[in-house]
Design brief:
The complex is a heterodimer of chains A (114) and B (220).
Chain A: H1 3-21, E1 25-32, H2 40-51, E2 60-65, E3 68-72, E4 78-81, E5 96-98, E6 105-111
Parallel strand pairs in A: 1-2
Antiparallel strand pairs in A: 1-6, 3-4, 3-5
Chain B: E1 2-8, H1 11-26, E2 30-36, H2 42-52, E3 59-65, H3 70-76, E4 82-86, H4 95-101, E5 112-116, E6 133-139, H5 146-149, H6 151-155, E7 159-163, H7 175-185, E8 190-193, H8 202-216
Parallel strand pairs in B: 2-5, 2-6, 3-4, 3-5, 6-7, 7-8
Helix pairs in contact in B: 1-4
The chains are: A alpha+beta (114), B alpha/beta (220).
């Protein structure tokens, strides 16, 4: 995933909300799926660069990685699909149905209480 | 104080992608996003497809490259309309760049628009361009470990073209492994083994393309 573009996009969304509420943001929660995963370290680094000298400086980013859900067609068991080693956790079958991947979301922002 | 947003982070890209998808649907034109490493043969496959199907379907091409209009010039030699986008450093096309070129495409006259993405097996797969289908090209010299190494790109594709199969006898490339790894990630993936140079296997790809046009564009 393109962490710099993602960081800038988060920065502009948080800045706009901060201006609207006239409050200082403390943290933001991001979630992503497995097919468009985020590298947390690079995202945080890129966000720090974007936020420097602004109301967003010092705020923390939390990234939640949402598993891709799959159902085995052989044994029927549901499991978290590992795209780097895809197989049913129960019977090791490689025949399964995959659910839609989670989108890349800015879930919530925490602001300082005024 | 916590504020719930649940806002899509690449929302701007997605808004443009929706605009592009609507544009192509309204013109009954199938738009395919073609993704691969540099040098896999995307331009050669598209050129040959244009020439071989010129009596059956009308094809237009949007070319994405970091620099130069070399590929658009190659496509123009086939007689098909081609629009070049120079990304000037960006390693993928984004939906906004396609939106900006919609006016330059006479979509009403076209059955298919291929968007040839910047040669890169990683980044392009994260950006929806408003296409109705994705074609990934993997060529034999690149090696048989690519689906395992770049799972996101193969997981999000509709069609995989394994190109340059005329080189199989010269190189160590386990085609069964490629197919097995790709299908594990994407059970619905259509896979064709082709050589755009010798024309081997191209008919299967053409059949898929014509069927996809019929499925997406209810022309009478």
């Amino acid at each position: 995933m393109h962490e710099t573009i993602v960081a800038r996009s988060i920065f502009s969304a948080v800045s706009a909300k901060a201006a609207e509420l006239n409050a200082r943001p403390i943290s933001a929660k991001i979630s992503c799926g497995q097919l468009n995963p985020i590298n947390d370290e690079i995202l945080k680094f890129a966000f720090e660069a974007a936020a420097k000298g602004t109301v967003c400086e010092q705020m923390k980013l939390e990234v939640v990685h949402i598993p891709l859900k799959a159902t085995c067609k052989k044994c029927g068991k549901g499991f978290d699909f590992d795209i780097y080693s895809p197989a049913c956790e129960n019977c090791r079958s490689e025949d399964f149905e995959i659910a839609p991947d989670a989108p890349l979301l800015l879930e919530e922002i925490e602001f300082e209480d005024t | 104080m916590k504020v719930k947003l649940n806002k899509k982070i690449l929302g701007k890209n997605d808004e443009c992608a929706l605009q592009n998808r609507t544009f192509f649907s309204e013109h009954n034109t199938l738009c395919l996003n073609v993704i691969s490493s540099p040098g896999s043969g995307k331009t050669t496959i598209i050129s040959r497809t244009i020439l071989d199907l010129k009596d059956k379907i009308k094809i237009g091409v949007i070319e994405g490259d970091i620099k130069t209009d070399i590929d658009a010039a190659k496509i123009s030699q086939t007689g098909a309309p081609a629009v070049q986008i120079e990304t000037r450093g960006a390693c993928h096309l984004s939906a906004q760049q396609i939106t900006a070129k919609l006016g330059a495409i006479s979509a009403a006259d076209l059955d298919v628009v291929f968007i040839e993405n910047v040669g890169n097996l990683v980044c392009p797969s994260d950006f929806d361009l408003g296409e109705q289908g994705r074609v990934v090209v993997l060529s034999v010299p690149e090696g048989d470990d690519k689906p395992a190494k770049y799972p996101g790109t193969f997981a999000k594709a509709d069609c995989l073209l394994i190109n340059k199969i005329d080189l199989l006898e010269h190189l160590e490339f386990d085609i069964d492994k490629v197919i097995k790894d790709a299908v594990k990630l994407n059970p619905d993936l259509k896979i064709f083994q082709i050589s755009a140079k010798t024309a081997s296997g191209m008919n299967h790809w053409y059949n898929w393309l014509v069927c996809s046009i019929e499925a997406h564009t209810p022309k009478t």
